[in-house]
Amino acid sequence: MRMVTALLTLYAIGQAGQAQTKSLDVKVFDSGFAQSHGTFNGMGAASDGKIYYVLCSNRIDVGAQMFSYDPGTGNIKHLGDLTEASGEKGLKAIPQGKSHVNFVESRGKLYFATHVGYYSIIDGREKMGVPEPGYKPYPGGHFLAYDMASGKFDNLAAAPAGEGIISMNMDVERGRLYGLTWPSGRFLRFDMETRKLKDLGPVTLDGEAGEGPKYRILCRSLAVDPRDGAVYFTTADGDIMRYRYDRDAIESVKGENLRKDYFGAFPEEKLGMGYNWRQTFWHAPQKAIYGLHGTSGYLFRFDPRVPRVDVLERITSEPSKRTGTYDEFSYGYLGFALGPDGRTVHYLTTGPILDANSKRMPAGSHAKRAPKVDLRLVTYDIPSAKYEDHGPILLPDGQRPQTVHSIAVSRDGTVYTLGRFTRKGHQVADLIQVRLR
Q1: What's the pLDDT at 330?
Q2: ∠385-395-330 over CA atoms, to 5°?
């Protein structure tokens, strides 16, 4: 393992216009997987103190790999190949190239799901990969469990119709796994006691497999209410959907939605991520779901019992707020999580690099996107509603990490993520650690 450390001193402009000195301690790790590609979610901080993560692959002959990092010893351990863990070693099919979901821990095991990483671009859109000669089609994503004590994987179930699993969560109290498949957007539930999988069908027209008016991008985050086992997700049209545990059925939440003026206007022909929430977490003290609308960067709170959505604050970076620009990635970022203190929201987002003299966007920049951006760490304290941009995250050699859509926050508040950067002349994705000083 190779580890590089740098202390980056930052100067941010405070509300009163005073220069404030801040610093971030940034480390980069080498997990030894040279074929790693962009990763979305695929992380977790576990009760044993370790950071677990998956490095993805977009190749037809190499699957995603799972690792753990021990902050106490500094050791990185390779835990397994997700294609092999899914029982598909030697199948000569498109491999399990991703885990697009975060880990959920229960009774000493980490639960997660696999997804396809090998795609074909057809009519300008990412489609399920067409296998090369000698390879079989993608066999479908899997629900998996990893035993942290024994180091063994348990292959629980496979998604139907050769679809990947792009979103997942677990009802720990009731022993249920839930998932959305890609590209069709089928809602799955897996019961741990009976080990039976049920497919409840598509939830938003034809999902990302659709064409024209039947195309809808899928929600990337499922939120579980532990009180009654309900599972919430959204549609690009702004509906909040609910899986009813007591009825084993899906319904639309009546009386509330995410079609908020603050989030923007999304005509049907240009929905993109639309009104979908980007990332969520359950906040036990307030018995509510906190979520992020990715395109606008607004933080909101959803009380499912009322039901009511309260739009709280735009938590994009300080330069983005100051210039009024959208994030560089139009869907918004998935690196959004509650810290171990139960009150601090952590968000990894981007901010435009402004002209040094005018503090404005460089001349000729498009109004919606910055030509060059920093990765930045933003925190938001829930009880006090205090927002803070801690500044840009630069790697020790000055590189700006790209494609950052993962986050895990350890017990001491250290932030971990997976980002792309250049190593020895090649683009890779790997583990990055960020400490607030």
Answers
A1: 86
A2: 55
